[in-house]
What does this fold into?
Amino acid sequence: MATNASNQTSEWKSNDNRHYMHPFTDHKELGEKGGARIITHADGVYIFDSDGNKILDGMAGLWCVNLGYGRGELVDAATAQMRELPYYNSFFQCTHPPAIELSELLSELSPGNFNHVFFTGSGSEANDTQIRLIRRYWDLQGQPDRMTIIARKNAYHGSTLGGASLGGMSAMHQQMMLPVPGIEHIEQPYQFELGADMTPAEFGLQQARLLEKKILEVGVDKVAAFIGEPVQGAGGVIIPPHTYWPEIQRICDEYGILLVADEVITAFGRLGQWFGSTRFGIRPDLISFAKGVTSGYLPLGGTLVGDRVAEVVIARGGEFAHGYTYSGHPAACAVALANLKIMRAEKIVERVKAHTEPYFSKRFRELGDHPIVGEARSIGLVGAIEIVRNKANRERFDKKFKAGMRCRDFCVSNGLVMRAVGDTMIVSPPLIVEDGHIDELVEKAWKCLDLTAGSLASETGTSG
Ligand code: PXG
It folds into this structure.
């Protein structure tokens, strides 16, 4: 039995290595390390691999499995919809009930000025749609020169050419001759790296005012919009100081530019509110969403279009020349509807706010006491741990030691998924985690930090 399972695993690994090109992966290195881990099934907050290991999923898949694994209602919603109408498009003056009902529900759940939604298949497509909407809006307003969209360094807005251009990941730009024209980047509000000697209030204002500086540099009549994630996710769970977003909002208002919130990670309860914008007091004109809308059970994303843009781009007439085969896919919409209805019935967002976040925050901060941790921060159910060589002055380990990757590998082999962004460890557990799961996450993280410290000490000659 065991031999069969291990034969099967090695056959899968070898076929995976031969045929499957993974996202963001160095396949040569992966092959040398013995191939990919094969996840075969999952239940609740745990995933299981083909070697029989049970692993606590501290990343909710990829920031998306908010209701956890194994929710039969979502499977039933997909099955029923696929039997009834597995596919039809909403081009050519057609529509279908799941897309209608989901757009109505999203209007209800989103902030008051949002009454329209454009569906896509992913967060990247949602952000490409934003670029198109923003430029169409200003064109129709008789200001076609307002083309420039300002985004931030180290932001992640997806992997399509538009999404990667908005994103501020230099490695992605280098490989694809990006960004496309008309996109500018300003520095991010990453206090641990960039503002250790300032108070959070001062640092937040300083980083927000970089937007004003950039607007004046590009020319007020050339700037169309600013886009940002309320909390940067893939960049390393960067939580802006409380002064940051109000100042960004003030600047957008003052210069009349559109404000886009990329809520692909932060929407649907991740920050203890239906939308992360609400938590920070942001009043966006456009919102991107994906991931948690279906708890990741089927791919779906979209752009919530606020009334300011809708009154121009939709209500005035004229065709918006943009759309995808799978815009408003019926099965994906049916799963999203079931997912959001469960979240509402089970008061998941309220529970995160009232109970899970306070407990998670208290326990997660304890990791800040670890000898190689410079900071452990969290908001809602996302958290980051900064691995450092010297707690006092935040000095990092030399990059060649790959402290973050070491820690990640220790975590996975000790039953915890925790992601590494450089030497920043990040978590984003399913929203349904219980206190016991949070205890398990923190205890395993501590143990793996110990293992990381030990292995680094033996190689770097530090005391740990
Ligand atoms: N915006 C944000 C804020 C995201 O986090 C996207 C857009 C793109 O969504 P799609 O559905 O096109 O992937 C994302 C996606 C990571 C990681 O390593 C994060 C994402 C995707 C892949 C990896 O943390 N976020």
Observations:
- The domain at 37-70+347-460 is CATH 3.90.1150.10 (Aspartate Aminotransferase, domain 1).
- The chain has 17 helices and 15 strands.
